[in-house]
Amino acid sequence: MDLEDAGEKRLMQLNELDEFRLHSYENAKLYKEKTKIWHDKHIKPRHFEPGQQVLLFNSRLRLYPGKLKSRWLGPFEVARVTLYGAIELRALNGERKFLVNGHRVKHY
């Protein structure tokens, strides 16, 4: 009888652990949804038009962290904006044009 009781007790513990895991999974899913909603609510949309001046994020400076180094280059002028968020920039002296991702650009 003791072996059967121990086996049943062990199965009950395993079931409780499984329920606890499922509740944790559901709570993590709810938390992730809430934080996504909060984050998306605080994102400001950025619209760029040709002729605007913008700054370009220099991602290569991450290798050399420093408080006083600016990671933003520019200003540049927006030459055109494509449908999918890519932006063609032109240097203010008008020599170079290049295409960058719209997430790497902010208003000057």
| Tertiary shape | elongated
| Estimated share of beta-strand residues | 25-35%
- Give, in spatial order, the strands making up the sheet with the most strands: 4-3-2-1-5
Helicity, in percent? 25-40%
Count of alpha/pi helices? 1
| Oligomer designation | single chain
Head-to-tail CA distance between termini: 79 Å
Show unreliable segments: none
CATH architecture call of the largest domain: Roll
Query: How does the helix and strand content classify structurally?
Result: alpha+beta
How would you state the average pLDDT, rounded?
89
CATH class of the largest domain: Mainly Beta
Question: Biggest β-sheet: count, sense, barrel?
Answer: 5 strands, antiparallel
What is the β-strand count? 5
- CATH topology term of the largest domain: SH3 type barrels
N-to-C SSE series? Answer: HEEEEE
C-alpha-based Rg, rounded: 27 Å
Protein name: Protein NYNRIN-like
Describe the structure.
This protein has 108 residues and is of the alpha+beta class. 37% of the residues lie in helices and 27% in strands. It contains one helix and five strands; from the N terminus they run H-E-E-E-E-E. Strands 4-3-2-1-5 form a five-stranded antiparallel β-sheet, with no helix packed on it. A hairpin with a 4-residue loop joins strand 2 and strand 3 (86-91). It is elongated. It starts with a helix and ends with a strand. The relative contact order is 0.14.
